[in-house]
Amino acid sequence: MAKKSFHRTDRVASQLRRDLGLIVHAAVREHGLPSVSVSDVEITRDMAHANVYVTALLGDKGPVAVKALKELAPQLRYKLAQAVRMRHVPELHFMYDDSVDKGEKIDALLRELPESDRVAPKETDADSDAESNQ
Question: Is residue 121 part of a domain?
Answer without folding.
Answer: no
